[in-house]
Amino acid sequence: MSLARRAIRASTRSATIIPAQLRLASSSAHEHHDDHHQEHHDSTVYPQEGFGNKFWRNVVLVSLCGVAAYKYAPKADDSAYLTRWIAMYTAPRDYWLLLNAKHTGQQMEVSEATLLMTSAERPTMHKFRYPQSLVQGSAFLNPVGMGVDMKDVVLKNP
After folding, report:
1. pTM of the predicted model over 0.70
2. Distance between CA atoms of 36 and 33, rounded to whole angstroms?
3. For FRET with 142, which of 28, 75, 116, 127 sits at 20 to 30 Å CA-CA?
């Protein structure tokens, strides 16, 4: 390979490597350093805010309607149409008392059953590793007053 070819190849390689090694973000930041000190203005045009827009108009209308409804509504007694209509679809007071009493009784039964199940324990049983040790010693070697009645002891093997 000739010296000229090697020189051309070396120059093309270095030309492709150099742009990849540049720090473009930091170099552009240094070039425009004085842009950070300028104020940026928002060019968006916003509508003028005030109490004359649709929202506040609707608030005032709803308020006036509420005041008129309160002022001209019938008195709160049993002869009002709305009161009679609600009473027609409402269950009587005695029905709810009976239903609540029934529910309370059922909850007491459930709580007693739950308490019974959660407080249940297995019977206490001492499992000996070597149950033959109970009969290993003589019953006659106990001192006076230390005799143990073992006739009711039943050995259980697991």
Report:
1. no
2. 6
3. 127
